[in-house]
Predict the structure.
Amino acid sequence: MTRELTELTRTDLQSALEALEVEAYRAGQIARWVYKRGVNDFNQMSNLSKELRATLRQSFTIATPAIVRTDASVDGTRKFHLRLSDGREIESVFIPDTPAMTFCVSTQVGCAMACAFCLTGKMGLVRNLTAGEIVGQVRLMAQELDLLDKSFNIVLMGMGEPLHNYDQTMKALQILADPEGLAISPRRITLSTVGASTKIERLATEPLMPNLAISLHATTDEMRDKLVPINRKYKLNELLDVCRRFPLKRRNRITFEYVLLKDVNDTPDDARRLVRLLHGIRAKVNLIPLNEAPAIDFRRPSDARVNQFAQILADHHVTVSVRKSRGRDIRAACGQLIVEGQKPSPAQRAAALL
Ligand code: SAH
């Protein structure tokens, strides 16, 4: 039986090698080939003996997502449309300067959260990605863009809800952090979530803790129930209490993302309520003027309206930034990732309850 090498942490790989009577230190050599050099063919691993390469070939496969298409935006953003080994498709995005180089990575095919303004949400959840598939997006993009030896950030802000695919997402962080591999510290990774409180509490206990971004988007339960349906289960107060208790490292803060929807959640009263809600939390607010799409029933507010909202926050000493939307011309901006024709089965829909 062959095992998929990219699904293994280095410790897992060491045990798998030991079972084959191969020295454990070979795991580090293999990780360097795969993650630092982008080699996915054992034949090219020239510091391994011919016999060892043959053993490895018989024992492991190395899956890499296939590129269906890449699109380049005028602003330098690149969208990668990828196919996984079962034929399912996802999208990942490279943003060259936010201000660092950033990879925006998916954690699920589709998403079960059904936020009212998000295209991915319209797909429903098709399936979770495996840890190897999450890391595979980074490995592939870094290799394609010749960035394997460069430093970059990762945002788990592509398709899917990372905390709804908790175990594979955490395992992906472990594989990404391996010093013999991509060596990406969790400090350079931001996990964005709709905010399932119990999962955030669990995240707070993890040894590899990424930066946290909460998709807040509303300042009353009534509105958030409509925009972010998971709010019907985890109310604003509960979510913000969990955030208040979240163990932040020195100088670190929780990002609150807030999609601005014209005449829906963009009023001065909303801005003032937001200030009150965030009281006592080391927070920064990232305003995201809606990226419009024909299938989305909301409008983007005017720049003046966005600036007014930002100004009220700033006047109350809340750190605020407005997200520049990147890659809109190639539909790579927030909420625009969708792969058509991949409807979930009824069983998948039923399994999608968080
Ligand atoms: N499920 C996670 C990860 C997705 S991150 C989460 O919800 O946080 C993508 C971010 O883009 C989220 O804050 C999401 O609410 C936001 N978004 C979704 N649709 C959008 C749209 N049409 N315009 C702008 N932002 C959008």
